[in-house]
Design brief:
The protein is α/β, with parallel strands linked by helices. Helix content is about 50%, strand content about 10%. It has nine helices and six strands; from the N terminus they run βαβαβαββαβααααα. The chain has a six-stranded parallel β-sheet, with helices on both faces. Helix 1 links the parallel strand 1 and strand 2 (about 25-30). Helix 5 (about 120-130) crosses helix 6 (about 140-155), helix 6 crosses helix 9 (about 190-205) and helix 7 (about 155-165) packs across helix 8 (about 170-180).
């Protein structure tokens, strides 16, 4: 992949660059703010953009706004960034400590670069937790809840099988059970599956808050 990194913390920015390069990817631009991000993209044609949500000068939502603008101007590009943008496809939202799990981080980045989705496990856990007994999630077995969380993170059946040390056929069965119990449509499109799961989790979270 050809990667652009926008991160104001120098050590993290340099660390991310080294991580991608060690994995065989090319870092074509590394920036400390969003000011030069659009020109860098226009001139370099990256496959993936990794940017922080809170960037200079206000450290509020500069990265979020930049990600949305990038997606609108360059729909062919993929940007690892924020929760709400996951629904657009080719987006991900990972907490910074996820970088420490190098294999998972790179797998998520590559998934996003291919047009998929990636949502941090801690965010997914927050969506899944705190449900009432009358919620449909209460009908899921412990294994099915594990599968649901990994589906929401954006993992494919093969990725889930690898994470849980199960066969793909077993995972496929669990996925079917999850979708049936939650009354969600089956889809061969991995991103549509993520959308369906996130929509269900978001809706049920709002109903209990």
């Amino acid at each position: 992949m050809r990667v652009v990194i926008a991160e104001d913390q120098v050590l993290l920015r340099e660390g991310l660059g080294r991580l991608f390069e060690d994995a065989g990817h090319e870092v074509i631009a590394s920036l400390g703010d969003t000011d030069g991000l659009l020109p860098a993209i226009a001139g370099q044609h990256p496959d993936l953009i990794v940017l922080d949500i809170r960037m200079p000068p206000t450290f509020t939502d500069e990265g979020a706004r930049a990600a949305r603008e990038i997606k609108e101007r360059h729909p062919e590009l993929e940007t690892t960034h924020a929760v709400a943008l996951v629904t657009l496809g080719g987006f991900g939202y990972l907490l910074k400590d996820r970088v420490l799990a190098v294999g998972e981080f790179l797998a998520a980045a590559e998934r996003v670069a291919q047009g998929g989705s990636a949502l941090d496990p801690k965010v997914v856990a927050g969506l899944v937790s705190g449900r009432g007994e009358d919620d449909l999630l209460a009908e899921l077995t412990e294994r099915e809840r594990e599968v649901l969380e990994l589906m929401a993170e954006g993992l494919t059946n093969a990725g889930i099988a690898k994470r849980l040390y199960l066969s793909e056929r077993t995972v496929e069965a669990h996925v079917r059970h999850v979708l049936t119990k939650l009354d969600l449509p089956e889809s061969e499109d991995g991103h549509r599956r993520v959308l369906a799961v996130l929509a269900h989790l978001s809706a049920t979270q709002e109903s209990v808050t």
